[in-house]
Description:
The complex is a heterodimer. Chain A starts with 8 loop residues before the first helix and ends with a helix. Chain A is elongated. Chain A has one domain. Chain A is built from four helices and no strands. Chain A is mostly helical. Chain B is mostly helical. Chain B has one domain (6-401): Sodium/glucose cotransporter. Chain B has helices at 6-25, 37-40, 49-60, 63-76, 83-108, 113-121, 124-155, 167-183, 186-214, 217-222, 226-229, 240-256, 260-267, 272-281, 283-301, 311-317, 322-330, 333-371, 377-401, 404-418, 422-430, 436-456, 477-499, and strands spanning 463-468, 471-476. In chain B, strand 1 (463-468) and strand 2 (471-476) form a beta hairpin. In chain B, helix 3 crosses helix 18 (333-371), helix 5 runs antiparallel to helix 15 (283-301) and helix 7 runs antiparallel to helix 18 (333-371). The chains are: A mainly alpha, B mainly alpha. The interface between A and B is large, with 41 and 48 residues.
Amino acid sequence: xxxxxxxxxxxxxxxxxxxxxxxxxxxxxxxxxxxxxxxxxxxxxxxxxxxxxxxxxxxxxxxxxxxxxxxxxxxxxxxxxxxxxxxxxx
Amino acid sequence: xxxxxxxxxxxxxxxxxxxxxxxxxxxxxxxxxxxxxxxxxxxxxxxxxxxxxxxxxxxxxxxxxxxxxxxxxxxxxxxxxxxxxxxxxxxxxxxxxxxxxxxxxxxxxxxxxxxxxxxxxxxxxxxxxxxxxxxxxxxxxxxxxxxxxxxxxxxxxxxxxxxxxxxxxxxxxxxxxxxxxxxxxxxxxxxxxxxxxxxxxxxxxxxxxxxxxxxxxxxxxxxxxxxxxxxxxxxxxxxxxxxxxxxxxxxxxxxxxxxxxxxxxxxxxxxxxxxxxxxxxxxxxxxxxxxxxxxxxxxxxxxxxxxxxxxxxxxxxxxxxxxxxxxxxxxxxxxxxxxxxxxxxxxxxxxxxxxxxxxxxxxxxxxxxxxxxxxxxxxxxxxxxxxxxxxxxxxxxxxxxxxxxxxxxxxxxxxxxxxxxxxxxxxxxxxxxxxxxxxxxxxxxxxxxxxxxxxxxxxxxxxxxxxxxxxxxxxxxxxxxxxxxxxxxxxxxxxxxxxxxxxxxxxxxxxxxxxx
Lengths: 90, 516
């Protein structure tokens, strides 16, 4: 059970630089992409930012739906970094 | 709950029987020579993206997690939700760090993290300290999986007098021990697929059905006392629950993949790419966990703890009975049995992987290192199989003989202890600038400080208030201990280097760690 996961076209385009070379082709680029992962840490660990009841979403307090959304956004950010740094892995 | 719930029990037994069959058949799946520890203990490092996803999902999100997280939310409110940020930030950490461990282990044939430590720092003693910490942290964790099974059995009315009450548990665990012995890591990997499927069905059904019965999510959250709905904010000089929440999340996230059973999942995968992909795919389980955490509020809104039918369960298991009680009250008997099977099988998968991981550590880093350096592959795998039996029956004995609260306290301590291996394993993956004896000193100091803090808290909690100037910062003891650990390791390393103590020979080279 193994299949190749190809990035959607939009993401493929997004990580190509203007001269057409894929991003992540040099080590410097890799570390810049990894900064996206730091966003996940800050977003989840800076607790005072989301420790609130309002605004509610469908009756769910902010504290809970923010963190539920955080899971999805976190996974998306990791996926972006995965696709962006694939070239270095080869 | 004096009379067994026949319908629930029938569904439960049927699913457990199916899983047992799979466990024994698993030995033939992707057949390999099970007389080698690489095949028995790591399934030949051949698991691709999908199998690894099921395996790690089944491994990390255990029955105890599924019971204890909603129980904490049920009892303590918002603070129990820290499991969510915890399982969000663990994956970027895995994405960056674990491919390096995979590459170097693949290159040198390392079966455990302590094997890597042995090669990197040329020290059997440091490797033994790391291996021992792993085994110590894992044992109570296995024992707690048994509590998960006990709770659902009690919920179905399976009770008895004296030793008879533990008989179903003992039978279940003996079967588990038999197929783990025979099939190795392949058994929990195959069973994990079934386990995860029924867990997903159970949770999706619950979050659809229960809010309908209770009148929507707004009603559910309205039933939560306002002071529990969010964290108590900082007041005056005390940072309150916010610093506790953040440090619990960070410390647990860093610790999760240092546990031996997580390492086994990482090392059994077929490549770096599999790990990197899974860092983006495993959050699906985190989403599931967040929904499961909310079951604690659903149980609160359904007032299951006030229902006399469940009084005996609550008095025996405390808040851990909240989710089983919710299933009993919300579902028809057959689906309650289905969901209880999800919890019980959810206990078997991690219990199997944990015992394999502990057995690998014992065999590689104690038996082979100190007793029989020249033992054959066959002897090595036989010792590992026997060790996995000892570990499982040790856990069974522990849970039957010792009061349950000690298992819970030891598991809390285990989390504090396992984080103390971070400087050696994770920092070691990047640099040898910390000296091997410096790391050993740091580890010892970290273990002592963490244990002392837990002692001060009477082993009931792990949030220890530390004073910085005028500010009191309640934080996760494991993280405080890690800070002291790193500082001690740094200072000791400088002294050792200045004095000129030999740092040992590095068996690995920079290119063994992969491109990043």
